[in-house]
Structures are given as C-alpha cells and as structure tokens.
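Milestone M4 deliverable, item 7.
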Amino acid sequence: MKNIFLDSDVILDALLNRPEFRIAALNTLQLAVEKRLNCATSSTAFVNVHYFLNKYDRENKMELLKHFRSIISIIEVDETIIDQALESEFSDFEDAVQFFAAKKANVEVIVTRNVKDYKRSTIPVLTPEQFLRTL
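Output delivered:
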C-alpha cells in the first residue's frame, strides 16, 4: 500500500468541488476510503483547509473535515520541521514546511497541483492525475 502526502490544494479541490480539478482529487481520496492508499497531510495544511472552507462559507465544513479526518493521517508540524524549513533552500516557506512534514512521515510521494513549488524535494512530486496513472 502506498503512503502519500496530500498538499492542501488537492484536498481543497476535492472538498470545494473545484470543477477542473475535483475528479482526480476525489479519485485519490476514494483510494484512501477504500483503504488502498495511506494518505497524510500536515497539521498546518489541515488548518489551512478549514480556513478556506470557512472563507467559502461551506455550511457543512465541520462534517466535511470530520469525514476527511477519518481517512487521513495528520503529521504534527513541530519545531524541528519549522527549523528545517527555515534553513532550507525552498523558495516558499509553506512548501518547505509541507516537504519536511512529508519527509518526517516517510511518504513515497507528494501529491500536489503545484509541482513546480517542490523543485528542492527529494521525494517524488506528482499531480493527482500523474499519481493516479502510476497505479
């Protein structure tokens, strides 16, 4: 079973039903529901997802988050991850935090729509569509 890290953009694509991206995001999450895939995200990404669900005034945001939480593991962002991100050569601090959280969890791949933001990643980085084609 593959262990993957989901970046917040993929999670939001699924939970906000973003038309151009939702199918691949939902298909990826469905694999986790079916226990064919272990998905993880960082605690900061989870909080960011709540922020955006709130921003778009989703009435059922807490139910969505509870269901989502039931199929995903949360990686704690601690001072080590923050220190690693601060010292890294990533151009975007938030992406550095996500990378070091993924690294802490020993995932096999990071799934994001922002592949270009992970140029410094030592973990393979794929879009949801690319990831699904690997299965």
